[in-house]
Amino acid sequence: MAGAAGLPLMRGDAIRRALELGSRPTAGSPDDEDYWGEIQRAFDCDRSMVNLNNGGCSPTPTHVLEQMIRDLRFSNELPVIHMWQTLEPRIESVRRDLAKSFGCDPEEMAIVRNASEANETIILGLELNPGDEVIVTNQNYGRMLTTWDQRVRRDGIVVKPISIKLPPPSQQYIVDQFRAAVTPRTKVIEVTHITNLSGHIMPVREIVAFARPRGIEVIVDGAHAYAHFPFTRDELDCDYYGTSLHKWLLAPIGTGFLYVRKNRQKRLWPLMAAPAGMDENIRKYEEIGTHPAANHNAISVALAFHNAIGAERKVARLRYLRDRWAKRVQRESDRVRILTPLDSPYGAGIGLVHVDGIDPGKLVGWMMEKHHIVVTPIVHPEFDGLRVTPNVYTTVAETDLFAEKLLEAARRGIG
Ligand SMILES: Cc1ncc(COP(=O)(O)O)c(C=O)c1O
Q1: What does the longest C-alpha to C-alpha distance in the chain come to?
Q2: Fewer CB within 10 Å, N or C, the chain?
Q3: Is the pLDDT of residue 85 over 60?
C-alpha cells in the first residue's frame, strides 16, 4: 500500500511536466521526444513487451486508473449511497464533456460500455420489416455482421454486403459502391468510420449526403475513430454513431458512447427495456441495471488528458510513428506492401502490412514468442497482413524494433 500511495504523486508530476513542456512554442511536434517522453511516463506499461495492438484495447493512464480505483473503493464502502447517490449522478458531467468533444447536444449522448453495445443498440433497435435491405461492406466488424445476421434469421431482413477493394482507388469509388447497391428496399447502410482491418477512413459525410434524401438510415461504427483523429458530428452529419472509449481515448476498459440524433430517439428502441416515459430521453439507452459508476466517471479524466495533448497533436504523432515503421519497411523490402493510405488524410495511426509468402498468423506468433512484440493478424478472404497500432505512450525505439524484425522476417524467413 505504501508503494501504491506514492504513485499518484509521481504521475501528477509527469502530467505537470508534460503540460509545462506542452506550453513551449514548438512543443509536442511529432518528433519532440522530450514532450512524448512525459506522456509515456503517465502510463504504467509493461515495457518488457512491445504493445503494438492498442487498437484492440489500450491501457489507461495511471491517474485515470487511480480515479477509477478510488471510486470503486468508495462505492464498495456503502454502494447504495456512495455509488448510487454520490457517484452515479456525475455521469451527467461525462455526458456533457463527451458531447462537447463530439459536437452534439448532451441530450444526444448516451454512455455505454463499448462500441458493440452502442452499435447493437442501433442495429437491433431500428424498426425493420421482412424484405427490408441493409447494405454493409466486406470490411465491417464481425460482431456487427453477426448482429445483422441474427436479424436476418429472426426478422427476415436482407443484408447485402458490398466489396471494397483494398486499397480503395478513391473516396468517390467507395461512395459509388454503396450507391450501386441501393434498391427501393434499402433502409439502412452500416459503415465503419475507419476500418479496423486496414485503417482506411471512409467518406461518411458523402454517404450520409446521398442516403438521407432517399430515407436510408446510416449507422456509423466509430469504434476506432473517436479520439484517434479529429472530427465532429457536424463534419460527418450523421444520425447514429457508436464508439469504444477504451481504444483511442485511453479511458478505462468497458467504456463507450452512443450518439443518437434527437429526432431519431423516439423511433430507436433501447437494447434493454426502458419505460415509455423515457421514449425521447437519451438515458433510455443506459437502463442496464446495477453497474459500477467508477468506470464511466473516469471517462472525464481520460478526456481531460486527451484534450491536454490535443487531437491534432495526437494524430500527428500517431502518423509519425506509423510512417517511421511503415515507410522504412516499404523502402527496404520489396516483399512488403503497406495496405493503409500513407501521406493521405484517409489514414492515421492504424497500419496494415502484408508480407509476401509469410503466413500472418505465423508471423504474429514469431513476433510474440521470439521478440515479445504484440501485433494482430488480419486474415480476410481478399487480403491479409499484420495490423500495427501504436498509441501515444509508444516509443520510437519500439516501432523501430518492430520495423527491424519485420525486415529480418522478410529477408531471412521465420522458419
Ligand atoms: C470496427 C469495430 N467495431 C466494433 C468493435 C467492437 O468494439 P468493443 O469490443 O470495444 O465493443 C471493434 C473492436 O475492435 C471494431 O474494430
Answers
A1: 67
A2: N
A3: yes
